[in-house]
Amino acid sequence: MKKEKKKIKVFYWIFLAFTAIIFFAFIELSKNTLFGWTLALAAFAGYVILEVKVLAGRKFLVRLGAWLGFFALLAAISFISAPPFKNVPAVDVKNPESTSVVSISQGDLTGVYNEDKTVEVYAGIPYAKPPVGELRWKEPQQPEKWSGVKKCDKFAARSAQPDNGEFYNTVAGIIGYNNFKISLNDNYREPMSEDSLYLNIWKPADADENTPVLVFIHGGSLTTGNTSFSEYRGEDLARRGIIVVNFAYRLGVFGYYANEDLAAESPNGTTGNYGLLDQIQALKWVKQNIYAFGGDPEKVTLAGESAGSSSVNALCVSPLAKGLFRYAIGESSGITPKTPFHTFRKYDDAIKTGKQIMAEMKCSDIADMRKLDTAALLKTQYANDSMTVDSYAITEQPYLTYEKKKNNEKALLNGFNSHEANVFNFFQKVDKADYSKAMNEMFGEYGKEVEALYPYNKIPLDYEYPVEAGGEAKGTYDAVLGAAWFAYSHYTWSNYVADEGLPVYEYYFTKDNRSLRANHAGEMPYAYGNLWRHTWLYEAGDYKLSDIMQSYWVNFVKTGNPNGEGLPEWKEFSENTEQVLELGEIGDIKMIANPYNDLYKVIDKYQNSTVK
């Protein structure tokens, strides 16, 4: 009997220790404040004393009640010590020095210097009037002026979007980026709001005039994303002599909702592309104001990744964006296929979804929809992750504009990564039968041709994660989906622009690392110079590759040609339309055959069949 009691007691203390580990891990991953840690330590210490002094030898129900009360206390501690909302600082410097006053069309403002004072950062500059109240689902309006000097030292709130909480976000970052680090400086939450139309500028401290400008559009399936994300920041590129701008735009139901009544009330007859119209407004702001920061409004290059790249592609065919930029950089997405695989939908489909949302929200008209609060609209079950032909911002299927050679870019740098689709399919197991069914659904009558080129077991699953569902066909499935969803759009985009006799440069990113590897968005920290923000994830070869990629990107922004002294030669796409520049291991950066050349020919046949 004594042995049994001793075993129970040991188990009891092990369980308490396990509970402590789990709880402290939870509040750390949830970014709870130090106040929460203090309360939790006191709670566990108090419970140990209670157990030793009071509960030992008491009946089971008494101890059970004590446990339940203790768990309720931990829940309360978690709640009251939740991280506060706080705008993200523009630079990672305590008490940064302010810049001199800059005067723009809206008023005077100041920014802050980075740590070594080589770059000035201006964050949270409004480029349009807040699209709230009666301005919800209307074209962006001119920003309001202000008096005095506006302090632009923090990023504005991110655009309204679904949010799973800090614990989920941190765990997702661990799985995707492996970028978790215990810190005392991140115990806060970034606010979000419909009032989010603000932009950020990184400029060389010595820039005075005629500096080329890179305007970057973030990704996130047109439903998520924020401009403060470390991989999007432009500090390192600014050190290399260009100005970098990024901005928020309306997302999801706020950015891509479509309704016939909204089209009727619009002076331009538009609906469904509010996020795209925000992007055009941001470009107009840059055209009008970037000179005040030393930028040349005639030397603007537009760049984007994922849905941001699709947005760049859309701006290349939008008549409203003509003359607002000269070169384009597209990373891992586009809408040039005759029937884009994602980020684009037919106008009738957009209107249908809009009606479903109105019914879902139990609203009878747009006036009722505008009365709904932000949180209510974010709960919609219907996806608003696609642009459409609204006959204003986009006047026809994008490929038709390219066939007419009426697109806006004068040079193109674009490309894709070797493992684009993997992160989208973690939880899907794919065996032989699943693979065959998927190919039939994706390519119709040409599915069998795809299977002949890519048998289910042709490509091993070489990127595995704890949440990877696997399956005998998973590696091949990921490769084919990556080619169709992402790489194929760059094949068509490159061909259209090259047919015009314009410079085109296409890349294939394959570099492995301890972070995102060569998955979707894996090239971002390399091209934009942000490896140093997560030093423990990268090695010397990564930094060398990043230096090369930054040089390519900056040269392209300056001249429309990425090549330069000391860099591996990047041949124009028109010289060999079946080759791309592999960006991988140092010493092995060279032109290679596009790995999907044969598959593209089958996808061409499928795409042509969709417009017969």
> Whole-number radius of gyration?
26 Å
The parts where pLDDT drops under 50 for at least 5 residues are none
* Shape, principal axes of CA atoms: globular
Q: Which class best fits the helix and strand makeup? A: alpha/beta
**Total individual domains:** 3
CATH topology of the largest domain: Rossmann fold
User: Roughly how much helix do the residues carry, as a percent range?
Assistant: 25-40%
The number of helices is 19
CATH superfamily of the largest domain: Alpha/Beta hydrolase fold, catalytic domain
| CATH class designation of the largest domain | Alpha Beta
The fraction of residues assigned to DSSP E strands is 5-15%
In the sheet with the most strands, the strands line up as: 3-4-8-10-9-11-12-15-16-17-18
- Overall pLDDT level: 95
CATH architecture type of the largest domain:
3-Layer(aba) Sandwich
Tags for this model:
3-stranded mixed β-sheet, globular, Rossmann fold, alpha/beta, 3 domains, 612 residues, 14% strand
Architecture overview:
The protein is built from 19 helices and 18 strands. The chain has helices at 2-29, 34-55, 60-80, 166-176, 235-239, 252-256, 260-265, 274-289, 307-317, 347-360, 366-371, 374-378, 398-403, 432-443, 447-453, 474-499, 524-527, 540-559, 597-609, and strands spanning 102-104, 107-110, 112-113, 119-126, 149-151, 158-159, 192-193, 198-204, 211-217, 243-247, 295-305, 327-331, 344-345, 387-388, 412-417, 504-509, 579-583, 590-593. The strands form four sheets. An eleven-stranded mixed β-sheet has the order 3-4-8-10-9-11-12-15-16-17-18, with helices on both faces. Strands 1-2-5 form a three-stranded mixed β-sheet, with no helix packed on it. The protein has three domains: 2-80; 102-410, Rossmann fold (3-Layer(aba) Sandwich), CATH 3.40.50; 415-609, Alpha/Beta hydrolase fold, catalytic domain (Rossmann fold). Helices cover 39% and strands 14% of the residues. By secondary structure, the chain is α/β, with parallel strands linked by helices.
